[in-house]
Every structure is written in structure tokens, then in C-alpha cells.
Amino acid sequence: MQELLPNKQAIFNNLLIQIANVYHAHGFLSIETPLIDRTEILLAKAGGDTEKQIYRVIKTNETADDADQALRFDHTVPLARYVVEHENDLKFPFKVTQIGRNFRGERAQKGRFREFYQCDIDVIGRGKLPLSYDADVVMTAYEALKTFVKPEILVRISNRKILGGLLVGLGLADKSDEVFGIIDHAEKVPIEKTLEAYAEEGLDDSQIETLKEFTEIHGSLDEVLPKLEIIRDKVGGELLAEGISELKAILGLIEAQGLNGKVIADMMIVRGLDYYTGSVFETVIPEHKEIGSICSGGRYDNLASYYTEQQLPGVGISIGLTRLFYILNEYGLIDEEKFGGLLDYCVCPITDAEIPFATEVAQKLRAEGNRVDVIYAGKNIGDKLKYAASVAKAGIVIGENEAATGKYVVKEFK
Amino acid sequence: MQELLPNKQAIFNNLLIQIANVYHAHGFLSIETPLIDRTEILLAKAGGDTEKQIYRVIKTNETADDADQALRFDHTVPLARYVVEHENDLKFPFKVTQIGRNFRGERAQKGRFREFYQCDIDVIGRGKLPLSYDADVVMTAYEALKTFVKPEILVRISNRKILGGLLVGLGLADKSDEVFGIIDHAEKVPIEKTLEAYAEEGLDDSQIETLKEFTEIHGSLDEVLPKLEIIRDKVGGELLAEGISELKAILGLIEAQGLNGKVIADMMIVRGLDYYTGSVFETVIPEHKEIGSICSGGRYDNLASYYTEQQLPGVGISIGLTRLFYILNEYGLIDEEKFGGLLDYCVCPITDAEIPFATEVAQKLRAEGNRVDVIYAGKNIGDKLKYAASVAKAGIVIGENEAATGKYVVKEFK
């Protein structure tokens, strides 16, 4: 767990508020699910790694065998349960945001924490969900990140149907998982390694060349569409055509909002998780590519197949704020002046006799929207001003004279 | 766990924000501690009930014997660890707020939840802490509650040194725990039960009469001081005199801020917890006394005697928002209009051709500070307006004409 001192905590909290405000401004409604849920529900669709990392919860007088409860490890699983449980009371499309802590017992390493904040938005449809919502979540997350990430950011989007369709066309449908895995890993290794990996899977030179050219396609719609259409016309197949058409609709709407060059198509993006079935999104800071994706997501065909026969397609995106905050801090990429937590004033009564008037002054300043402390401790006014300068932007000394006249001077600390 | 639908969740979240804003306005700094901490730390000073209610945390491949971690059950224990761990980086007096979930495996009952939000403020001194901070936390909590509790509220304060000193004077020092317990329980039972309970503990008629008269003392300083001073002069003892003098200083400062009648002295208040050593506070809604205390706290001599030899006196107060929200809701005592979560606008494009302009309109309204959704789903404009009316205060229809001219009409839904 990342435990912060008050000055950093204030910044962290302000970023959480910024993100929530942008999410709310875009019409996403907050919900909160329990941190503790039934293990059976949490692990319904989870694989081996998740099962190993999950924290089980027991009471003192129980044994491990009673551990039918666990801590949630993401927001998606509890969301599925929530939507099914409250389906009749929700409006669809359900635009929902969840901001809170999740838990994974990962091996401790730099920038990875066992308790971490995730800031998710999802849109859940009933039966069908228009593609415009894919654009909606991307634009919303972009705007949220822009409020506090100082350098340029770049959202890269693709559609798993395009690569999936291409693999079918190349006769590689039975090697989909392996190829998705290789491409997902490709940016972390030299290009030779990737080409070797293809060859090890038994791909021939022509297939490898096609994949190499395909994954290099990126840019605005104008730039990528002609290239994708050539592949579509050469390779054929419905899935590939559908993927391209979806990408065109989504990126088209995003570009129409003036985000050309900030949100681009990029065929290198596949996202490892196999529950994505259409759009996939990643976000990078181009000046610091080594950081990796700071905000990811995608479209899934069915949120809650485990619980209900009702088709609930969705699209979502998530900012992992604990890790992002850690990294931005390390790189000095947060505007601490803007998001810092210094109080506006600290009022300093010289003796105890001035405490009532000092408190009254503080209340007046608070009524005007200021954050104000009164320092009641300290041996003398020097002590008090030292404290004041450490917590506030300005100090106000209240002595006998100030209390009598009601007039006082504001001393700016910088 | 209390799981809310989005409209109630919006209100709940707004109340959390209101409370945090008032706390921050009064100079309290936010910190967050891990939800999972070492069991040894969490249970260092805890008694039997807490130990039974605590949730232990284990990983999948561990057994219950490995459960050396647990979920925090309050904010005070992690705060003690935090202050000792970061002592050199903190300013004292450390004015701190913690808002978040705690966990207790209580028997499920109405209004009691196993995951619950507590909104705490504490002031921690190093060596000494002036009494004015007792007034500070009371006034801050009062102001926070007043932002959203519609009926009148009443803060009742006392000082455990007064009753403690009185018991010494009456020769009942060895029965302190029992008498504190009886008085703590007194308002939940008829007066006869209380008098019987005293008698069962072996108190004589004169002692019982003195305690009965004592616990009936309540009101403003002007009202209570003469009565307390008569007792002091009759019974004597340093502790009693000190308690009265502390009460006078604290309530004096509060009354000087115009809170006469809203914050009163009340000798019935003792607070069950034995770690309070001076002031004790409870808050009630006089129109609904049956609710009990909605916000309580007090002064403790030493926050962290378990970890450090350094004396760290503190004073704190806590709003248990999950339970309070549940009750206020049941009684209909929250201004839902003021704190509700309806969006400002929902923009409705008639056909997909109007989606880009509808999105542009939404972005403009967001830039002016509004919360705005665009409805992309729905078979026809009737469907879309129905959705709009369920999520927003006003709707905006965008058809061919609006997209061409850039002009549109705002339709208020009520």
C-alpha cells in the first residue's frame, strides 16, 4: 500500500476529485460495491493468477475453510453482480463510474501496490449498445487525464475484430491466442525477437511480413483507412470488414470533436485480456513511453454471462490512479502548485485572551470559502508563525490591538 | 454492506464531500491508511469484542494460521501507527482527517453494516495539547453535520474527570467502571432501572441521590457552572475541580462563537470507551432522540502508548456516515433536491447523423460546468427523451435543423 504524507495525500485526493468531476460531467453515475464479496462470485470467471492473488477474508473464530468471502480485485466483477441484481431499477444504457480501492496480493515491486485505486467508467447496454459509447468512454478518460497529466498524452485504439479477421484470412485462426500474445508483448522487445517468436509458432515468411506491416499501421483515420482497406480487399472475410467499419465509426466521432492526433488508430494494440471482443484502448505519454499504458479498456460482448441469460454488452476504460500517481510523482509530472494542499490562512492569537476573536476571524474567512486553521498551541508567537508558515499560504497575527479594533494584517508567506 | 442505487449513491457521495469540505475548511489535513494492516498492530489495545469482530485476511494458498493481517476496524489504531511512523515529517499539533470504510463482522441488524464509512477528525499534540482543540473538533463536526441534517442538532459535552472526581469524593473510586457503565446506559432505560442498578452495586441512598442530581445537570455554562461549583465545594478533590475548569474553558470558547443552546454541557454523557480521559462529546437530533448519538468523540491522554514513549495527547470526533445516512433516509431528513444526483442536461440526437453536433453541444455545456449526457441508444426520439427525463433535469433535441443552424431549444423536465 502506498501511504502518503498529508501534502502528497492532498494532491492524490485532488486528482481523484478531478477524475470524478470529469466522469460526472460526462453523465456517468457513481456506484459503490462492497469491498468484501462472496469468493464464488469474485472468482466466477477468473483465471489462475487472479485466484492466487486474491485475499480471502475470515473472522477470528473461523478457519480457512470458512473463507467463502474475499476482497474484490477489480471493479468489473462486482459491477456484473450489481447490474444483474439491480437490473430493474437501472436505466440502460447504464453509464456508471466506480472509483475505489481494489486488492491483489502481488509480489511487492516498485509502483505496484497490493491496495490500489482504480477509476473506472463503463457503459452497459441491454441487448445492444451503439458504438458511439466506445468514443464516449475514450473522450471522457482523455479529458480526465488531461486535467492533471502535464505532458502530451496519446490514446491508441484498435479493434480486436481486425486482427482476429486478418488471422482467419491468413489461415492462422488456430494460432490466434499465440499471435495476440506476441503482438501484446511486441513493444517491450526488439523487433527481431517478435519476428523470431512468429517463426517459432510456425508462421511462414509471407504471414510474418503481413503481420509486421499490419502492426506498423497507425495514425489518423485518413492515414490508416486506405492501408486497412487494401488488406481487407486482399484478405477478405466479414469479421475483418466489421472491425474496420467499427474503428471508422468510433474514431470518426472522436476526430469530429477535434481530437485528431491525440487519439489515433494503432494496430499494435491488442490488450492481453481475452474478454475484450471489439474496441481496445491504451494510453501513453509519448515523452515517456517506458511507463507503458496509463489508462486502458475496451468493449466486451457480455458483462454478466455467468449470472443471466440477458445479453449485457459493455465498453469501459480505467485509470489506475495509484500506479499513475506513483509514476507521475517519480517523474515530477504533476503540477503540485495547482493540486497541492496548503491552507489559505492560519490565524495566530498572541495569547489565550485573543483565542475567541482569532476563532471568529477564521470563521469569517471560512464563510468566504477559504481553508483556515487557528493555531492554539505554541509557546510564543514565533512558534505559532513557524507552524503557520508550514501549513498555510498566509498568516494572520491577532494581538490585543487587533482584538480591540477588529482590524488585522494578512502576511503572505511567499 | 449498504449497496445503493445511483440516485441514493449520489446523495451519499455528496454528503461525504460536504463533510470533507468543512473538515478541510477548518484546517484538517487528509490522510489514508491501508485497509489491511498487521493483526498484531490492529489488536494491540483491543478488547474481546473487537477481536471477535475483526476480519482476518489470508491469501489463497495460506492457512488461517498465516492470518497475520486483518482489515482495520476503526481509524484510530492505524492513525496511531501512522503518527509514530511519520512523526518526523508531520507538524504538531497534527490536525488530521480520515474518511473511509472500516470493517466489523457484527451480527447483521437494521442500520448496522459490516462495511461502514467513518468521517473522523483528530488533533494530535506532542507532549501537550491546548484545550481549545477540544472546542475546535466540536465546532467543526457541528458545522459539518449542519450542512445536511435538516432538523436541529444538539451537541452534549462533559468531561470524564468531573464524574471520576465525584466518584472519588463519594468514596466510590473502586466502583468507577460499574457507575460509568450504568450512566452510559441510563438514557435507554426508565429512571427506576438506573436507581436499582446503583443499589445493586451497593451504593447507599445518599450516593444514589447525589448521582441522580448530578446526571440531571445540563445546559449552558451559566446554567451548569453554579450547580457544578456547589458539588465541587462540597465534595472537593483536584480531579473534579480540574474537570470543571476544563469544561468551562472549552464550552466558553464554543459559546463565544454563538453556539449557545446548540452545544451544551450535559453530565449524563460519559461515553463507554475507556480510552477517553477528559472531554467527551455526543450529538443528538432532539426531535428524534431514539436515534441515539450521531457523532461522538472525546479527548485521550495518549494516542500511541503501545508504540512510543513520546506522549501524544489527542482529541477527536467521528461521524459514522453509513449508519447516519441509513437513518436520515428512513426518517426522510435529507434534502434530496439539494444533494440529489440528476444531471443538468441530456442531449438527444434524432438520428445518427446528428451525433457529432449533439456531442459538440454537450462538450460546450460541460465547459460551462454542467453535467451532461448524450443519449446514443434508443430506437426513436421518444425512447431517447424518456431516458433523458430519467437521468437529467432538462433535455435538448438535436435534429437536422438544429445541426444545420447550430440553434437548439432546452426542454425542462420539471
Largest interface between protein chains, with number of residues from each side: A-B, 85 and 85 residues
What number is the mean pLDDT of chain A? 93
Strand content of chain A: 15-25%
CATH topology of one domain in chain A: BirA Bifunctional Protein, domain 2
CATH class of one domain in chain A: Alpha Beta
Q: How far from one another are the termini of chain A?
A: 34 Å
Which spans of chain A of ≥5 residues are poorly predicted at pLDDT below 50?
none
CATH architecture of one domain in chain A: 2-Layer Sandwich
Number of helices of chain A: 16
The count of β-strands of chain A is 16
Strand order of the largest sheet of chain A: 1-5-6-12-11-10-7-9-8
Largest sheet of chain A: 9 strands, mixed
CA-based gyration radius of chain A: 27 Å
Structural class of chain A: alpha+beta
Helical residue percent of chain A?
Answer: 40-55%
CATH homologous superfamily identity of one domain in chain A? Bira Bifunctional Protein, Domain 2
Morphology call of chain A: elongated
- Characterize the quaternary organization of these chains: homodimer
Key terms for this structure?
16 strands, BirA Bifunctional Protein, domain 2, Rossmann fold, 4-stranded mixed sheet, alpha+beta, homodimer, 16 helices, 42% helix, 414 residues, 9-stranded mixed sheet
